[in-house]
Amino acid sequence: MEKSLFRYIWTHSKRDQLIVCAVVLASQPFYFASLDLPRQIVNQAIQGEAFREGQALAPFLKLDLHMPNWLGGHTFHVFDGFEVGRIGLLLGLSCLFLFFVVINGAFKYWINVAKGVLGERMLRRMRFDLFSMVLRFTPEALRTVKSSETATIIKDEVEPVGGFIGDAFITPIFLGTQALTAIFFIIIQNLWLGLMAIGVVGVQFTVIPYLRRELLRLGKQRQLASRELAGRIGEVLDGIEAVHVHNAYGWEKAEIGHRLFRLFDLRVKIYNRKFVVKFLNNFLSQLTPFFFYVVGGYFAIRGTLDIGQLVAVIGAYRELPPPLKELIDWDQQRLDVQVKYDQVTEHFAEERLLPFVSAREEEEQDKPLVGPLKVEELRISDAHGGLILDNASFEIELPAKVAIISNGGGAASTLARILARRMNGFSGQVRIGERDLLQLPLAVAGDRLAYAGIDPILFPGSIRDNLIYGLRHKPLGSPGSPDSREEMRRIVEAERTGNPVDSIADQWIDYEKAGAKDAEDLDHILVTLLNRLGMGGEIYLFGLTGWIVPEDEPELAERIVEARHRLRETFQAEGMAGLIDPFDPESYNEQTTIAENLLFGVPKTDEFKGRNLAYNPDFRDAIDRAGLTDDLVHMGLQIAETMTEIFQGLPPGHSLFEQFSFIGAEELAEFEMILRRHARSDVALSKEDRAKLLSLPLAYIEPRHRLGLLDNHLRLLLVHARRLVREMLQMADADGVEFYDPEKICAAAPLRDNLLFGRISYRVANAQARVAEAVSAVVRNMELLEDIERIGLDHQVGTAGRLLTPQERACVNLARCVVKRPDILILDGALSPFDEARSQKMVEVLFGLCEGRSLLVVLPNDRQADPFDVLIRFRDGQIVLEEPRGPAQRARRPAPESSQPIAGEVA
């Protein structure tokens, strides 16, 4: 970043700044004319000076430029004008004044919009520049910089900087020329009044900025305190589990309260100083009209200044304080923004960034990382000054399989991080062939190196999104012509603001790098890879809970429906029909809620989910027509009576509240009031009470809750009402429910429900396991397994992968590293979530997947070191190379150019 804010602004926006400034200068003659017209209206038309010699007509729009006496008093004739009467002159001058008001307003409108657009463009450029520098932070900077503070800087702290950019050059020119025009006009009317205005303006521009220096200091403290507050809140959120575990709520509240008080105190000091300065500024602004009234009135009485001139001078001065005040505010904003900009540049200081490398240099250095790996005089200390490695040196020929055996300290992990370019703070040199590892461009290192640490970093999105993250380096293929006006506008704006013109809708996935032909082939590779790493079972289960869109995959939808019928036949043939209560349009399903039986489908919007259904007018009309409303309200009364008896005296959170999920602990009192109102025969239940009671039986399942509230007659009524509900919702064009159809896929239901097309019985022991086994058999027989696993790739991982187990996160991280086929794969604690036997199997799998490439693994001991080519041990700060003693010592692998795609390896 440029150290000077104004240099940064001028470098990237001088063309736009000059255009707007030219328009500003062009507007000043119109502004001057609008200042002079009130004098002409008063003197020429109202007082009749244009008709004082008795003539009935006077010239309108006669243009003569009169210079003041102190400038020579010359007159320049421009235009004769039109002859009009006194009323005509008044109307003409007034309309002309209105015309100039509109013209000046149009100029201001265009200038303000142009400033706003310019500021937004520069703000976009600045935010993008800062984000680009975030990607260049050194590993050491990343360990010291708080992510929440950096995000706050980019999002919030540069906002006022961007708002100021449009005003940086234009505002002082615009306001300054307006103020100078008004002062010049006053001086033309009377020299002494002009000198008085200049004197007061000079005091304002001298005293006010001096008093605002303290505001700048306080503002800087407030900004730093706000940034620290955001950083602390981010720390608490990141470590919220520790807060819960150790009951640190009180301390954290007190600590945040202390920070908020400091912010409050700074704000109060800022307000006190700010309004003192504002009071003084307003006083000085009103002082000049006092002098005008006194001195100007004196001159008018003496006859050296006519009334029209005095009115024009006072009117011109009314136009003077706003631009002067805004100029003073602009100077305050300039100083404040400069402080913010200085803090931004300090945060993104050059020493925190990796060197910038051009695309040409990246292309020149993009070569396989093979040859001798030379580490010379490597020296690094820990945080306490103790030596981890002391002038350590070694050489290994790559590609190779290397085991880095930990000695119980941090040397093994430190060496792995150095080789993976995750640590720069060391002395010595690391070279691969003739290239210095630290001098490799970021793009080359990210493409040809892969590092899997102890804490996998996953981004919100699907498993597939995270697996292919390393394949999205740049859009592939030549960009085509924009297919819409909006896309053309996006490209033009990107070019003007220094943003990338690439669209996220372009093809970013490098299938060739992963050894795939297309998206379907890549999915096959990903699924096979996860299976080899031992995550196939989880992906299969994720697939069963996933969804498909029948319109996008009609063939798969047909096969799912076929599997549904095959599964039903299997249950019938093997005597397992009682395990599933199928969805039958003509019968009541005992294993689902009353609401699902009535809808016979899956709600897609909130208005048809849970208790909201009881308040839906179309649904209420349908059950009214079916004669069900009174029965369901009566059923709700029975449930409310039973629940209030069961829950009486139980504390919130008791397991019974979860089992009978009709009423929450906080709702007991409300339903008790409804029951008391119902017990009074003279009080009818209100519409709201009936709706609340109606909502209770909608969640009722007889085999689960076992309250004996469903009889055969009510079941028949519910099945009859099902058709009416569907008709009413379809007539109302309510697209909030996906109805069940035995011959179609229900897109709103998960894949498992579409396969079963029913519910597992609550009454049969071990039904879940037996059904899962039958489903698995049918899926394998119909060769649907890979399709379901592919759907499982769409499973969401959550924020930082928290919806996955540690083992699943580790598998996804390993697969992400492997799928891009790096020249060197480094594992540093990536296998720690697994037991030793599983780790050993995964190492064997990785050997096959990294055939012809380098694999470096940090091992806690040498029990798994047998298959490696080289062992690295640590003794007294030195590195010792050994060959494994086991019989399975492996031979050298071919160079990466001859390696086969992953698809070939795992086939």
From TrEMBL:
InterPro entries: ABC1_TM_dom (IPR011527), ABC1_TM_sf (IPR036640), ABC_transporter-like_ATP-bd (IPR003439), P-loop_NTPase (IPR027417), Type_1_exporter (IPR039421). CDD domains: ABC_6TM_exporters (cd07346). Keywords: ATP-binding, Membrane, Nucleotide-binding, Transmembrane, Transmembrane helix. Residues 883-907 are annotated as: Disordered. GO terms for molecular function: ATP binding. The keyword Hydrolase does not apply. This is ABC transporter ATP-binding protein. The chain crosses the membrane at residues 87-111, 192-211, 279-301. It comes from Microvirga puerhi. PROSITE patterns: ABC_TM1F, ABC_TRANSPORTER_2. Residues 77-329 form the ABC transmembrane type-1 domain. The keyword ATP-binding applies. It is found in: Cell membrane. Gene3D superfamilies: ABC transporter type 1, transmembrane domain, P-loop containing nucleotide triphosphate hydrolases. It is a multi-pass membrane protein. It comes from the Bacteria. It holds the Pfam family ABC_membrane. Residues 373-901 form the ABC transporter domain.
